[in-house]
């Protein structure tokens, strides 16, 4: 009996020792490791990953650590994940995210997933040409993390864990803005959503309900002036496997003179780009309200109502909106409900709870 008690009492010690060994191995076995990270993407085409920043296990790990680390902010209170939560499709359900100084931004936080299939031009206005450029701008933005890159480097450099991980990922303990941006780019490129009900339907593993199927047909049908078919025109802008066309478009939210946010024009200063914004993916759209660049719509029903009869004319409104403008799509309440039901099939529960993307600390 005495031996049994001693054995039971020894279990926590053994478990603690195992954990300590894991930590010690991480600290002592510090060598450059370029083992590739295998990106699982089901039936999606192979992504176009930059040649100079191919995904590695250690690079993705470092990027994940940085993404969740509040030390990247001025007062150590806000991480990238603070405005891009996994359960909200790496977006923010607040209309405008609140930064470390209590200030709010002017645009809704864009969702982060399937970035490896995302065309050039990041943020709503495309001001960051590459994902690595985008990754470090929120750190420096006074409305967001309000920190200097020099201070971030000093904080990370004081951590042996980070110095070791930078060496594993890049072959050197030296920490600089480029390596930070490349690691964050790697992690964000590793975030993949390919297992929604609609994906399972395409693979023959799921069946859509009658409402979802009607919504699917409306989504992928053009407007029919004769009224014979019910078409929502949605697929023109939300196309391909990622339900996005990687374009910047004016979708008629505001008419001329009412456009307070001028979008892409701020970057290019080309009048033809007035009020154009990045077309977002519709994947996981049901879990990432509110909608549009300014979060003006709280529900998907409001979004569909806008395209049905609320598109405003302006000099740069996209020509694809011609039928939305006149005569309007003529969708009934049932049509709208069916469209929304279909968009709910784009929610990927596997992605929303994938432990590979959650907080590593």
Structure description:
The protein is built from 13 helices and two strands. The protein folds into two domains: 23-193, Cytochrome c-like domain (Cytochrome Bc1 Complex, Chain D, domain 2, Orthogonal Bundle); 197-345, Cytochrome Bc1 Complex, Chain D, domain 2. Strands 1-2 form a two-stranded antiparallel ribbon. Helix 2 packs antiparallel against helix 5 (160-170), helix 2 packs across helix 6 (177-190) and helix 8 (210-219) packs across helix 12 (333-344). With 361 residues, it is mainly α. It has helices at 2-28, 57-67, 131-140, 149-157, 160-170, 177-190, 197-202, 210-219, 265-268, 300-310, 322-325, 333-344, 349-352, and strands spanning 248-249, 277-278. The chain starts with a helix and ends in a 9-residue tail after the last helix.
Put the structure in a nutshell.
This protein has 361 residues and is an all-alpha fold. 37% of the residues lie in helices and 1% in strands.
Write the layout of secondary structure elements.
Layout: H1 2-28, H2 57-67, H3 131-140, H4 149-157, H5 160-170, H6 177-190, H7 197-202, H8 210-219, E1 248-249, H9 265-268, E2 277-278, H10 300-310, H11 322-325, H12 333-344, H13 349-352
Antiparallel strand pairs: 1-2
Helix pairs in contact: 2-5, 2-6, 3-6, 8-12, 10-12
Main attributes of the structure:
361 residues; Cytochrome Bc1 Complex, Chain D, domain 2; 2 domains; two-stranded antiparallel ribbon; 13 helices; 2 strands; disordered N terminus
């Amino acid at each position: 009996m005495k031996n049994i008690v001693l054995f039971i009492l020894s279990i926590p010690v053994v478990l603690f020792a195992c954990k300590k060994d894991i930590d010690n191995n991480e600290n002592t076995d510090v060598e450059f490791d370029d083992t590739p990270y295998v990106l699982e993407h089901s039936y999606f085409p192979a992504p176009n990953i930059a040649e100079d920043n191919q995904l590695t296990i250690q690079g993705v790990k470092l990027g994940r650590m940085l993404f969740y680390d509040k030390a990247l902010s001025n007062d150590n209170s806000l991480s990238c994940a603070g405005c891009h939560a996994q359960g909200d499709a790496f977006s923010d359900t607040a209309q405008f995210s609140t930064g470390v100084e209590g200030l709010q931004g002017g645009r809704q936080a864009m969702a982060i997933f399937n970035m490896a299939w995302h065309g050039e031009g990041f943020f709503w206005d495309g001001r960051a040409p590459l994902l690595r450029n985008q990754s470090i701008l929120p750190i420096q933005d006074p409305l967001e993390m309000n920190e200097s890159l020099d201070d971030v480097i000093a904080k990370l450099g004081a951590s042996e864990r980070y110095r070791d991980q930078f060496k594993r990922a890049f072959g050197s303990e030296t920490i600089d803005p480029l390596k930070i941006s490349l690691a964050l780019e790697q992690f964000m490129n590793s975030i993949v959503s390919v297992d929604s009900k609609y994906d399972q339907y395409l693979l023959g593993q799921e069946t859509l309900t009658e409402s979802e199927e009607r919504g699917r047909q409306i989504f992928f049908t053009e407007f029919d002036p004769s009224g014979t078919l019910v078409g929502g025109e949605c697929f023109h802008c939300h196309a391909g496997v990622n339900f996005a066309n990687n374009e910047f478009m004016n979708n008629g939210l505001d008419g001329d003179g009412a456009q307070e946010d001028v979008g892409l024009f701020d970057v290019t200063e080309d009048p033809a780009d007035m009020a154009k914004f990045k077309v977002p993916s519709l994947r996981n759209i049901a879990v990432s309200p509110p909608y549009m660049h300014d979060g003006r719509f709280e529900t998907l029903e409001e979004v569909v109502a806008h395209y049905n009869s609320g598109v405003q004319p302006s000099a740069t409104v996209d020509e694809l909106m011609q039928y939305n403008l006149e005569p309007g799509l003529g969708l009934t309440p049932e049509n709208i409900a069916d469209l929304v039901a279909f968009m709910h099939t784009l929610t990927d529960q596997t992605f929303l709870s994938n432990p590979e993307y959650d907080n590593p600390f």
